[in-house]
Structure prediction request, 196 residues.
Amino acid sequence: MAPLDPVRERAILDATLELLSEMGYDRMSVDQIAKRARASKATIYRRWAGKPELVVDVICNRFDMDAPRPRDTGSLRGDLAELVRCLRETAERKHTLIMGLSSTLVSNQELARALRAHLPSRDLSGVEALLVRGENRGEPARRADTARLAAVAEALVWHRLIFVGPPLDDAFVVEAADDVLFPLVRAWAERPVEQS
Prediction:
């Protein structure tokens, strides 16, 4: 993967995200992305193998780049609620785009494979930071699984948004943190350490 000038890379990622939102994955082409970003197709192909890899980069990195980070509230429970608030905000802003991509992932195995291959590289630093803060405060955050915690929190938000329906209000945020995430982190912390 050849490095690109950060300004040029951002323009290409922005153009991809805009076109995904406007027309969806199947109707969008690398030609259209290049034109929107005022870049050549050769520039795009020097950095990404094709459209699936470019879209995966947008999903795995651009969403994380634009997503708000959970702030330090002074408690692990508060930080977990803040995590759900941040995910709610992202879900509300990107709802149409992600719903469109979800159906595409079912029908387009090339895109689904590319996404699965890159998901482990997602930036989970906001979740990692809140767990480190909790541990530093002496709260039960040790041995929590960062990736699984992020996945559970995301699943709660998306399940509510797609299947249960709004509101994604403060009562939902508190319920998700108090009834699911905090007990989960506590259960991980209380697991006996396996002897090797």
